[in-house]
């Protein structure tokens, strides 16, 4: 045991430094990314929908067309990140999306809104899978769920803090002669440009170049990651090799893409339409909310979701990832979201939606620890991008279909039943996949309780 003590100490300090030095900054980038992406959901019920004369279907299309733009450059962008390095590519992405987001301040009709949402997707293409790939290349698999869980906290916390921030900015109506929702777009866009410039100087592509690690920590990380990649190659043969074809011919990649589709369908149905649903409480329950009231109510489901995400990923890290860490939340989310339709008050409805949000956010970071355990190199870049592309298709589909079905049926019953269906499908596919494949992850090491293969 004494012989292992030095390496265990080096492992602890190396992972701690990565967690403190890189994860918060990349999470902050994700926070700004998600806020810019979903700012339109706060703008629509607070003046933009009326000023641009948008129907629910038009708003859904404007929300969703972002993802079509993202899909256009998704895989090429992640391959470029693999080739040029995360520092340059993620910085470039942030600056360009910040500039496009800034232009929303002056949008004047639905056609311009569609065009800018599409361009925003093109500008942001590759950021999320690139961030996942970047963090996955800094820590061995047994620490990956913890690291991705810390990173993923930024997504629910974006709404926890972003919704009140958006509400406050919208309340600055008249600043610079702009409507409140235009003021919001102006001020949520600028941080992306600033962070993009900072990222160019702050991020480092690989552990071997990190001067803030000791030589022992750099050597340990480099050695562990190289050995892990070698094990994946030997374990999985051609499917783990660093070539583009491996990702597109792996059945597991395609199944995981469909699983992710279901989660993201639910995620963005809530993200884009929850503020509108809350706005509808006023007529449904004969009450009145201020802009800040609506912002705070929108934030409610996401704070418990962040707490559940943290402890769920911690449990998966300590005890080993199991199929139920992903499939279980999918079942809970799939059953709870339609139940929200039958609650008799805003409080009860938001409480059930909170359960759904907790389920979605608990599963997502654990899910993302899976692909990098059987793909490496260029195949990992392409595979993660391919899976995320399916999520972007879900983002478009959930946004447009939810709005279209709302206009067609006059209520959110059918759209939310469809959300439940897709999440239950994700659970079923995850269970089916686990019965047929192992991820190629080595068995857990007793001292570290590392991630083990889904079973």
UniProtKB/TrEMBL annotation:
Gene Ontology molecular functions: transmembrane transporter activity
Xref: CDD domains: MFS_ExuT_GudP_like (cd17319)
Gene Ontology, cellular component aspect: plasma membrane
Keyword field contains Cell division: no
Keywords (A to Z) from UniProt: Membrane, Transmembrane, Transmembrane helix, Transport
Keyword presence, Transmembrane helix: yes
Membrane spanning residue stretches: 18-35, 55-77, 89-108, 114-135, 147-171, 183-203, 253-275, 295-312, 324-342, 348-368, 380-401, 413-434
Domain Major facilitator superfamily (MFS) profile span(s) in chain numbering: 22-438
Source organism, top-level taxon: Bacteria
Biological role: Component of the tartrate utilization system and may allow entry of tartrate and tartrate dehydrogenase.
Name of the protein in question: Putative tartrate transporter
Organism of derivation: Streptomyces griseicoloratus
């Amino acid at each position: 045991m004494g012989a292992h003590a030095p390496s265990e100490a080096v492992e602890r300090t190396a992972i701690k430094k990565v967690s403190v030095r890189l994860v918060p900054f990349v999470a902050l980038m994700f926070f700004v990314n998600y806020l810019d992406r979903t700012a339109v959901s706060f703008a629509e019920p607070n003046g933009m929908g009326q000023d641009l004369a948008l129907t629910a279907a038009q708003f859904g299309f404007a929300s969703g067309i972002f993802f079509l733009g993202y899909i256009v450059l998704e895989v090429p962008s992640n391959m470029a990140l693999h080739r040029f390095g995360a520092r340059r590519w993620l910085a470039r992405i942030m600056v360009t999306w910040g500039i496009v987001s800034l232009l929303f301040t002056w949008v004047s009709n639905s056609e311009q809104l569609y065009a800018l949402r599409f361009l925003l997707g093109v500008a942001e293409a590759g950021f999320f899978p690139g961030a996942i790939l970047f963090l996955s290349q800094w820590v061995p698999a047994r620490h990956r769920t913890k690291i991705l869980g810390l990173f993923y906290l930024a997504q629910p916390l974006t709404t926890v803090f972003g919704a009140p921030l958006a509400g406050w900015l919208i309340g600055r109506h008249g600043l610079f002669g702009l409507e409140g929702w235009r003021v919001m777009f102006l001020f949520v866009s600028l941080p992306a440009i600033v962070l993009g410039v900072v990222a160019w100087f702050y991020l480092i592509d690989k552990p071997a170049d990190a001067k803030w690690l000791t030589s022992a920590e750099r050597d340990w990380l480099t050695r562990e990651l190289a050995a892990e990649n070698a094990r994946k190659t030997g374990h999985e043969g051609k499917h783990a090799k660093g070539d583009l074809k491996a990702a597109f011919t792996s059945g597991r990649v395609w199944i995981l893409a469909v699983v992710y589709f279901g989660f993201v369908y639910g995620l963005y149905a809530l993200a884009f339409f929850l503020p509108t649903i809350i706005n509808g409480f006023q007529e449904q329950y004969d009450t009145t909310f201020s802009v800040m009231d609506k912002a705070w109510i929108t934030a409610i489901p996401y704070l418990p979701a962040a707490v559940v995400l943290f402890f769920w990923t911690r449990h998966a890290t300590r005890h080993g990832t199991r199929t139920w860490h992903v499939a279980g939340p999918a079942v809970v989310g799939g059953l709870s979201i339609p139940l929200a339709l039958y609650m008799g008050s805003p409080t009860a409805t938001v409480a059930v939606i909170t359960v759904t949000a907790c389920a979605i956010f608990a599963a997502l970071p654990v899910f993302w620890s899976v692909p990098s355990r059987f793909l490496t190199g260029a195949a990992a870049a392409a595979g993660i991008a391919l899976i995320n592309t399916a999520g972007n298709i879900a983002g478009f589909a959930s946004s447009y279909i939810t709005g279209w079905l709302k206009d067609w049926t006059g209520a959110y019953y059918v759209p939310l039943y469809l959300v439940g269906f897709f999440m239950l499908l994700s659970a079923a596919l995850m269970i089916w996949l686990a019965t047929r494949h192992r991820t190629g992850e080595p068995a857990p090491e007793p001292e570290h309780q590392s991630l083990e293969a889904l079973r």
